[in-house]
Amino acid sequence: MTIDCRHIRNFSIIAHIDHGKSTLADRLLEITGTVPAREMREQILDDMDLERQRGITIKARAVALHYHLGGQEYELNLIDTPGHVDFHYEVSRSLACCEGALLLVDAVQGVEAQTVANFHAALKHNLAIIPVVNKIDLKNARVDEVLEEIEHSLGIDATDALQCSGKTGQGVEDVLQAIVERVPPPIGEKMGKPEAPLQAMVFDSHYDDYRGAITYVRVINGSLKKGQRIKYLKANLVQEVTEVGQFTPERKARDELSAGEVGYVICNIKSVHDVHIGDTVCDPAAEASIALAGYEPPKRMVYCGLYPADGQDFEELRDALSKLSINDPSFEFAPETSDALGFGFRCGFLGLLHMEIIQQRLEGEADLDLVQTAPNVTYQIVTKDGELLEIHTPQDVPDAGRIEEFRQPVVRVSFLLPAESIGPVMKLCTDRRGVYKKTEYLSPTRAMMVFDLPLGEVIYDLHDKLKSCTRGYGTMDYELLGYEAADLVRLDILVGGRKVDALSTICHRDDADRRGRAIVKKLRGEIDRHMFEVVLQAAIGSRIIARESIAPMRKNVTAKCYGGDITRKRKLLAKQREGKKRMKSIGNVDISQKAFLAVLDTGEEQKG
Questions:
Q1: pLDDT at 584 over 80
Q2: Is there a domain that residue 192 lies in?
Q3: How far is the CA of 209 from the CAs of 161, 213, 214, 444, 453, in angstroms?
Q4: Which has more pLDDT, 341 or 29?
Q5: Residue 293 within any structural domain of the chain
Q6: Closest by Cα among 119, 60, 67, 65 to 90
Q7: Same domain, yes or no, for 463 and 325?
Q8: Which of 202, 339, 344, 501 is found 20 to 30 A from 43 (Cα to Cα)?
Q9: DSSP state letters, 520-557
Q10: 273 and 210 in one domain?
Q11: What is the pLDDT, as a whole number, of residue 255?
Q12: Could you tell me the residue range of the domain that residue 169 belongs to?
């Protein structure tokens, strides 16, 4: 049954992490009867084990709800969104397919960093925004104060804001009515025309071992039917549709998807490289297929190496990364080799949590045992020839003589925190070479502070330290400003006079001495003793800034001499010295993986 475009509403729920998006989505599914009561469970849209374990949404999910109001049936297409700053790319993809958004704010925690960021993202997409105060059933809910915060920090009228409890269901019926009344239908000058040539936007996809790539689409114009031939414009791929349908929330096949609807399409696409998020699906017979405006390419900010603990699993890791990349196109990977770890991949991520999630998904879904190198950010170098280089690994840094300017990525970080925590947070940022910008008071007890910080200082442990010095009440959000020149150097670690590439790092010159001393000291405690002296050094270019040495194992070669001439003992000791000298020149120092990984942790210990 095809539904009229005027009775379709496409919306998403946007909020800071842990403000109750998934719980409210559960109540919407329950009240509309989309999921029978006997099948209902908590966080029903968070179907990944990792999402349920951590209590966070990682992937955007789509679900079609049918709601009756005033004798008319409406189709409400909910596209769920994550709340953590690292998954802002997922949020932007969801918002591009909607006409409205529920802006959810916790009645206890109030407006937080991601609330502000997601609100501005929704404004950028010209969405109808419905403010909703959630968790009003809690004893310490402060609804009136939160409404004031919404007006003050977001600049919107909160008099018509809704109040509800996703847990008890109180006020959720009002939310459904508001979606129908305040969110516009998907009709406009360039959309909502069922009789027009097919145009649909790909906003997500995932890989199924039996069906191939399952593409999530929002139909803009025309219709999609089983047996129809369609073309993916960017991939320049023509395929026959084997199944179309909607998520309710499980896949449910339908005869067709019409203009304005959200659903999925299966075309027996077996190659993971043929589906591009933001691509346009159209009719191959149409004379001029106009591509829809897609998404901005995601900015990978954090890079690290992923290596199989067992070298024989390299091909399995490659296959797992390929399949995961169709499900999450916001990370990238390329093969690389390391003297210490063998063959692996250099991977780029949106942030530190994103990196952690990808690693855990690979280990859980593909049953792989992985070794991860220390994360680092992307730098830029202007050479004396005027060439601009992008640096993803310390090994890419050219000789100091070729560098004209070394640039680091700088982010603007917004902190929302209790007013009494302003002092500790200010010290936290200035210790990390932050530049203070402004402070705004949202209420007598809550403030927003803005600092410009190097991204390299943000990714390691700034979030953890923020939680510590604000007793868990502080939140942060950041946006990339660009690259600024800084006094940066490549810190090399030499073991036995040989450079170990995998232990090289990029750091500020002021931190280099302290970090170099910490690394060689840690390495000294982890590397086993050899038959010869092992010298550990930290260097910037040709200048050694720190040194430790591991004493050789000794054998008492004079133990068999019971008296006699002293020259015999001297002769034996001289022979031993010669042997150790020769061994030192040709011997290899074995750095165990345990020692290597222990050193990778020192970057975080520096900041403590």
A1: no
A2: no
A3: 45, 9, 10, 55, 43
A4: 29
A5: no
A6: 60
A7: no
A8: 202
A9: HHHHHHHSPP-SS-EEEEEEETTEEEEEEEEPPP---T
A10: yes
A11: 85
A12: 5-182
